[in-house]
Amino acid sequence: MKVQTVKLVYFSPTATTRAIVKEITKGIKAEQVQHLDCTLPGSRTAPMPVFQDELVILAAPVYVGRIAKVAAEHFATFRARNTLAVLVAVYGNRAYEDALRELRDLAVQSGFMPIAGGAFIGEHSYSSEQKPIAHGRPDTQDRHHARAFGAKIREKLQQIETIAAIKPLTVPGNFPYRDPGTLPPMAPVTNISLCTLCGKCAHICPVNAIATENPATSDENICTHCCACIKICPAQARSVQNEIMLNIVNRLHTTCQARKEPEVFL
C-alpha cells in the first residue's frame, strides 16, 4: 500500500510530542505531510473533517499513566473510514502504563485501523534546570529511534495489500485504565517583579487558563499542569510553588533518573 500523504494529529503543549512525530514522518518518507496541531484551544473548536483513505499519526503526551485528558476528549470526536493510524504516546521517563492502550481504543472507536504504536520519552513537564527529569529529551538517540520506527512503518505499509487483511494491533496496557486520581486546584504562579507581561504564557496555554489581558494570573480550576507556561517564559517569572506539586517534582526527580528507551509495536 502506497501512502502519499501523512496527517500528523497531535496535542503537544511543550513540543516534545510534536518533535517525535516529525522524526517518525522522516522515516516514513511520505511525499506530503500535513500538520493538524490540536494543542491550542482554537484548534479544537471546529469539528475535525472525517479522515478517509489516508494514514494518520495520532500522538499525545502521557499524564499519570493516561493520555492527556484534553487530547483524549478531542480525539474521541474524530471519525475515520478506511484510514490507517500510527499511535504515539510520549511520557516523561516515569511510565506510560495504560496510555498506549487507551489511545488504541480511542482510535478504534473512531473508526481508525491502527497498524503501529510507539511509546517515546520527552522531557517531563515538571523538569527544570534545578530538578531535571528526562532533561533535553527527545535527544539524538530518541530522534534516531523515531526515524527507525518510521522506516519500519513504511516497510509494513509496503506489505499491506488490502485494509481487510490488517490484523488488530496489540499494545501494552490494561482496561479498566488506571485511575489518575484527583489533585486539588493548583497552577504555576507568577513572580510579579519578574513578569514583563509579554503574554507568551497566555498564548501557549492549551486550556486558556491564563488571561491574555492579565497573564500574571492563572485559573487553578482548569490548569492541566502541563507547565508549558513555565518553559516558555523568557523572564523565568513562572514557577511551581504549590507544596503538593513540589513534592511530586522532588519524587519524580529522585525516582525517574534511570534512562528509559522507546518501545514500538507493529
Detailed description of the structure:
There is one protein chain. This protein has two domains: 180 residues, Rossmann fold (3-Layer(aba) Sandwich); 53 residues, Alpha-Beta Plaits. It has seven helices and 13 strands. Helix 1 crosses helix 4. The model has no long low-confidence stretch (mean pLDDT 94).
Q: What's the gist of this structure?
A:
Keywords: 4Fe-4S, Iron, Iron-sulfur, Metal-binding. This protein is α/β, with parallel strands linked by helices and 266 residues long.
Largest sheet: 7 strands, mixed
The CATH architecture of the largest domain can be named as 3-Layer(aba) Sandwich
Instruction: Count the E strands.
Output: 13
Work out the radius of gyration: 19 Å
Unreliable segments (pLDDT under 50, ≥5 consecutive)? none
Distance between the termini: 16 Å
Stated plainly, the CATH topology of the largest domain is called Rossmann fold
CATH class value of the largest domain: Alpha Beta
Q: Please give the domain count.
A: 2
Overall morphology: globular
- Strand % is 15-25%
How is this fold's topology laid out?
Layout: E1 5-10, H1 16-28, E2 32-37, E3 51-52, E4 55-63, E5 66-67, H2 69-75, E6 80-81, E7 83-91, H3 99-109, E8 112-121, H4 140-159, E9 189-190, H5 200-204, E10 210-211, E11 214-218, H6 228-232, E12 238-239, H7 243-255, E13 263-265
Helix pairs in contact: 1-4
State the main characteristics.
single chain; 266 residues; alpha/beta; Alpha-Beta Plaits; 2 domains; 7-stranded mixed sheet; 7 helices; metal-binding; 4Fe-4S
